[in-house]
Amino acid sequence: MTTFPTDEPVLVTGATGYVAGWLVKELLDAGITVHAAVRDPGDTRKTAHLQEIAATSPGTLRFFKADLLNEGSYAEAMAGCAIVFHTASPFTTSVRDPQRELVDPAVKGTGNVLETAARTPGVKRVVVTSSCAAIYTDAIDCSKAPGGVLTEDVWNTSASLDYQPYSYSKTLAEQEAWKIAEAQDRFKLVTVNPSLVIGPALNDRPTSESFNIVRQMGDGTMKRGAPKLGLGVVDVRDLARAHMEAGFREDADGRHIISGHNTNILELGKALIEKYGDRYPVPRQSLPKWIVWLVGPIVGDISRKFVANNVDVKWRADNTKSKRALGMTYRPMKTSMEEMFQQMIDAGAFGK
Length: 352
Fold this sequence. Notes:
Layout: E1 10-13, H1 18-29, E2 33-38, H2 44-55, E3 60-65, H3 75-78, E4 83-86, H4 98-119, E5 125-129, H5 141-144, H6 165-182, E6 188-194, E7 196-198, H7 209-218, E8 230-235, H8 236-248, E9 254-258, E10 261-264, H9 265-270, H10 273-276, H11 289-299, H12 304-310, H13 320-326, H14 333-346
Parallel strand pairs: 1-2, 1-4, 2-3, 4-5, 5-6, 6-9, 7-8
Antiparallel strand pairs: 8-10
């Protein structure tokens, strides 16, 4: 296990987020001083859980006001920091204006943070939270990859502003990060590229899209079945650990697929049957592709192109580099799903 030096502060952007919260906890538990950049440091609804963690940790937490689209707003938070963890980026699929709601915050925000890092003395490394979405758009893309498996050498070429704009935003943002990194010599850039993130949140009002998917497994939406929609998943705590390793391992380099399991939506639901199947309408069977194709655009705003390219299509990615270069191990998917679902039950997500 990597030893984490504690003598210099680190910056975490978007520190109140689902993934960032667990990263902040890891850093504080290691005794590190964390500069947490958030839009509103005075919003205790979003910061209280981090303050509670800091109160019982050996590390120190300091909040700073910053905004992705406000040029130069990260300078104060970054001053004196050796490592910058850039996790801030919108994750939602329900948007009216993808350019304004997804692409601009992702790309301009990444440029803002990394250009500030290039001007800030002492910054040695920047870790950007990218995504497997910067590698692929649809599960069918796996079959086009060398050997039918996604690797860090593959880039997303099929997303656009009109189709899968979230994937498009993550692709453009990571490309912007590498472009800036290659034009300077102050810091080394390392990216982590997670698949769908699952597992419990540290705050009681998580906004990640993954909670919307899991909510449908307990509220009856998927009681007649779930689609075999191919994807990968990773536990949020494993992803936080990957950030730590990417930040502090001397030889960490390039992109890293952070994904514990190649799976699909139905298998995620079936992981809940043993513990919750007698009390909640968790999915037990496959929803036929033709039904998803027929009703998807009507009930879920899911395009028929998306259904064709993802339902009953296997998703495969190679996580070998993360294990070799970052020392990663991954929790069982069942554990992650059960702990996430239990947290949602405790929060009253299913009305029981």
